[in-house]
Task: inverse folding
């Protein structure tokens, strides 16, 4: 793309781009229809091929601002809605192959869960959203494992089928819904019976609100996704449990990263969850990463 806005692509400072803005409805459609409701896009996903130009073309205008996410080495573009400044959509692009082509890796949004009213000129005329019937889970799992090999080539072990399935479904935008289907699968335990089992274990029926989970990430953790080398790295599961006010909904152990994975599903929006990974550091299991929602 031509550097119309004189962006310093390596700077983590927020840089203003276009003054033109799209409606909150258009940003909602981008998340839920154009991107199929997903937030993480692995190499086997069609959306993982999308460039900034593709996203901007669909939305109909350039982003409102840009910054470089140093933690994820991602070029980050954010669109702020014209009719609601609290409604935002961010797209993170990475140079996956090292060839200078920056393509979609994951996205984030704020205040776009509820479908906004459509402006008269943008009345809905069909949907681009993928349905579960369009998604081949076997392909997702196989592709996810290939991505793991690339990103964690220095680790030992292979992805368990179940753990791979859970994470892959999350990338396809179905993770929270899949965990929600476990509501009656087990009796609440408040404690994982096997902290090294890749089988999902239900911990608690008590849930926090989606607002609490969002603020936990955006405010308490300053919106970060990776925490190695930061002060947040000292946080433990108990820290999260105390801050959120309840146990996680589900636990499983990820054998690829040797990580304990706790997920809180919100009480008011089962499609929204907070998935937190902890790795062993010394005698404690401390915060490693949060999967983008």
Result:
């Amino acid at each position: 793309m031509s550097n119309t806005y004189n962006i310093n692509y390596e700077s983590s400072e927020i840089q203003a781009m276009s003054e033109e803005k799209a409606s909150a409805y258009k940003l909602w459609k981008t998340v839920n229809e154009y991107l199929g409701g997903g937030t993480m896009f692995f190499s086997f996903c069609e959306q993982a091929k999308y460039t900034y130009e593709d996203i901007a073309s669909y939305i109909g205008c350039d982003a409102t601002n840009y910054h470089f996410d140093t933690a994820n080495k991602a070029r980050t573009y954010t669109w702020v809605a014209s009719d609601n400044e609290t409604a935002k959509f961010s797209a993170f692009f990475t140079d996956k192959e090292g060839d200078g082509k920056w393509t979609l890796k994951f996205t984030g949004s704020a205040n776009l869960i509820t479908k906004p009213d459509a402006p008269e000129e943008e009345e809905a005329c069909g949907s681009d959203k993928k349905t579960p019937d369009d998604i081949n889970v076997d392909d997702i799992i196989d592709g996810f494992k290939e991505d793991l090999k690339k990103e964690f080539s220095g680790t030992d072990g292979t992805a368990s089928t179940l753990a791979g399935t859970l994470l892959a479904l999350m990338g396809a935008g179905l993770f929270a819904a899949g965990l929600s289907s476990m509501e009656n699968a087990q009796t609440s335990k408040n404690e994982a019976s096997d902290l090294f089992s890749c089988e999902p274990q239900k911990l608690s029926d008590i849930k926090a609100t989606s607002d609490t989970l969002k603020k936990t990430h955006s405010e308490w953790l300053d919106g970060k996704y990776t925490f190695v080398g930061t002060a947040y790295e000292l946080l433990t599961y108990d820290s999260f449990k105390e801050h959120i006010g309840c146990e996680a909904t589900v636990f499983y152990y990820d054998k690829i990263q040797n990580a304990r994975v706790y997920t809180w599903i919100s009480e008011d929006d089962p499609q929204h969850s907070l998935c937190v990974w902890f790795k062993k550091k010394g005698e404690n299991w401390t915060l490693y990463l949060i999967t983008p929602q």
Q: What stands out?
A: Confidence is low (pLDDT under 50) at residues 129-138, 151-189. The chain has two domains: 15-122, 179-290. Residues 15-122 form one domain. The chain is about 25% helix and 20% strand.
